[in-house]
From TrEMBL:
Gene3D superfamilies: Glycogen Phosphorylase B. GO terms for molecular function: 1,4-alpha-oligoglucan phosphorylase activity. It is an enzyme of class 2 (transferase). Pfam families: Phosphorylase. The gene is glgP. InterPro entries: Agluc_phsphrylas, Glyco_trans_35, Glycogen/Maltodextrin_Phosph. This is Glycogen phosphorylase. It comes from Candidatus Nanogingivalis gingivitcus. Belongs to the glycogen phosphorylase family.
Length: 585
């Protein structure tokens, strides 16, 4: 069966990009043709990818970003390899008696068009070597290179500083580097998507030393060719491991004794944070939004503050935006064939007309209902939203800082807003395994809804939040709610899916939403929790009011798009990364 991505890719009639040099020219970086080639590709290491069309299910935004980065590279014909584990078990959510349950489903790379290449070995002091099966899937100018074995476990299995996690990380870094050699590729640059991928840079360093380079020269070389992308705000939250764990799990994979000595010297009180090692081995470092790059507080081994550049995340427009809307952006020359905003995108957005926008939103609603038909709410029933109703949505991982419970603090107010405006509220999101506090919060939100005759009909928690549901809500709902505690969201990308699909956004000024200041979205702000809570209900009322007046609606949607289109564009993100990695400093 055709996946919905295949369908989208066929629907959009972008002119074909002749070859990658055309994109390099468009971003004024002609010289990249010499630096990036099929044999010397851009290599992206990540513990997580969220690309179910290709069989790999992630946990959240980090994986969505990785998948989108590869898709953008494919569209632009950039030679690109994504190195990542293929977890053979994935977690799904269901709701039973208003409580979250997790089920594990087994998957195999063979079932998703991956080709088996060979095995590589990962060494451990106390155990026989683990044999990782390397699988590959080529997609245009890009490919996935994956590793796994039957006991590899699922994504984020166990403790973040436990032996098994370290084994998974070592497998990605050392195993992935061996896999690159297996297919004869030498990275032009290595991008480390978070510090859990650092062993890729260590493996490269070890190889250079083995080939006769002096350790310090090799470090300089690796630093120049490695980019560290940080998504975590505080260094205290970074995982760390003991010297004993390194001796057992990491060092048996390193040949150079000089390198082992150098790494040993980075331990403090018998412990080493992977972020410390990463900071030493990557010259270019970035945060994933302007605010995040500014507030990320990291120290290097000498205690000096680390400077992060900002490259705000973007999304793959073809994946997340309704084909008809994307078609309109192309036709009206709001974006070009690369997916970059055109020189006069602002004027062209201003020419959009509200009737057309409303017609496109109706199509989006049909897509949403199609997906909802296959899905279940908290009572195991499938839901359909009437064409003339308004829909609010809150779709994000159920974690504390995202505050999914907030609109349910005052059910009286919520009821009134939904009733007065013929509105529905769709909620979706997974509680992280083992997060008992948020699990209880979800129970309590679902109980509040259960105990109210009106809310029971109008508020639907759709089970097993995933990218299919995320996309359906982005295209088919009207008003998105995004209220992370200011300062805690590194970037967030689901608000970009909403803005790209011409929705109204209610948001705190956090993550990528704060790249525009003041934001043109309906802002939730306040000096304390009560004020913020008040602001949420006020902005929900205001959004409904705007929806009742075409002039206001047109103005609000256009203002948001003018401000955020360059941020939303995944091609813009790729341009920024190429600039950061290969630009003159
Ligand atoms: C887009 C998306 C995300 C990213 O969401 P943020 O909360 O904005 O980081 C996470 N999970 C899924 C399934 C998504 O589609």
């Amino acid at each position: 069966m055709e996946s919905y991505y295949d369908k989208i890719n066929k629907t959009i009639k972008t002119e074909d990009i002749e070859d990658v040099s055309e994109f390099y020219e468009a971003i004024n970086r002609k010289n990249l043709t010499k630096k990036l080639s099929d044999d010397r590709p851009y290599v992206y290491f990540t513990m997580e990818v969220y690309d179910k069309g290709n069989g790999i299910k992630g946990g959240g935004g980090l994986g969505v970003l990785a998948a989108d980065t590869r898709r953008v590279a494919e569209t632009l014909e950039i030679p690109f390899i994504c190195v990542t584990p293929f977890y053979r078990s994935e977690i799904h959510q269901s709701i039973v008696a208003l409580d979250q349950r997790e089920t594990i489903i087994n998957v195999r790379p063979e079932d998703y068009g991956f080709e088996y290449l060979d095995d590589v070995e990962i060494f451990n002091r106390d155990m026989p070597p683990a044999r990782l099966n390397i699988f590959q899937k080529i997609l245009g100018s890009t490919r996935f290179l994956t590793m796994g074995e039957s006991n590899f476990g699922e994504l984020y299995a166990g403790d973040g500083s436990g032996d098994h996690r370290l084994y998974q990380e070592v497998s990605l870094g050392f195993g992935g580097y061996k896999a690159l050699k297996m297919i004869g590729k030498k990275p032009s640059v290595i991008q480390l998507n978070e510090t859990a991928t650092i062993f890729a840079a260590v493996a490269r360093l070890d190889e250079l030393v083995k080939n006769g380079m002096n350790l310090y020269e090799a470090i300089v070389y690796v630093r120049k060719h490695t980019l560290y992308t940080n998504h975590t705000l505080v260094q205290a939250a970074e995982s760390e491991f003991s010297y004993e764990q390194f001796t057992k799990i990491v060092f048996p994979n390193i040949e150079s004794s000089a390198l082992i000595r150098w790494i040993s010297g980075l331990f403090r009180n018998d412990r080493l944070k992977l972020s410390t090692l990463t900071i030493e081995l990557a010259e270019a470092k970035n945060g994933v939004s302007r605010l995040h790059a500014r507030v990320a507080d990291y120290r290097d081994i000498n205690g000096d503050k680390v400077k992060f550049r900002a490259v705000t995340n973007g999304i793959d427009l073809k994946t997340w935006i309704l084909p008809d809307i994307l078609g309109l952006y192309l036709e009206k020359e709001i974006i070009d064939k690369f997916g970059l905003p055109t020189d006069n995108f602002k004027e062209n957005i201003d020419k959009l007309d509200i009737e057309k926008i409303k017609e496109l939103k109706k199509k989006g609603r049909i897509e949403l209902n199609k997906v909802l038909k296959k899905r279940k709410n908290q009572y195991g029933k499938s839901v359909q939203i009437p064409e003339n109703a308004l829909v609010f949505d809150f779709k994000r991982r159920f974690v504390d800082y995202k505050r999914p419970w907030m609109p349910f603090e005052d059910t009286e107010k919520l009821r009134k807003i939904l009733r007065d405006n013929n509105a529905y509220y769709i909620l979706a999101g997974k509680v992280h395994q083992g997060d008992s506090r948020m699990r209880a919060t979800l129970n309590s939100v679902l109980s509040k809804i259960e105990s109210d005759d009106f809310l029971r009909e109008r508020v639907h928690f759709i089970q097993d939040y995933d990218e299919e549901l995320g996309r359906a809500l982005a295209v088919g709902s009207d008003i998105a709610i995004n209220v992370p505690i200011v300062g805690l969201e590194a970037c967030g990308t689901s608000f970009m899916k909403d803005l790209g699909n011409l929705k109204l956004l209610i948001s705190t000024a956090d993550g990528g939403a704060a790249d525009i200041s003041p934001t043109s979205a309906l802002e939730v702000s306040g000096i304390n929790y009560e004020q913020e809570l008040n602001a949420i209900y006020k902005q929900m009322e205001k959004a409904c009011y705007i929806y009742n007046n075409d002039t206001l609606l047109q103005k609000q949607i256009k203002n948001q798009l003018v401000d955020y289109l360059p941020i939303v564009s995944g091609a813009r993100m790729m341009k920024d990364y190429l600039q950061l990695i290969f630009g003159q400093k």
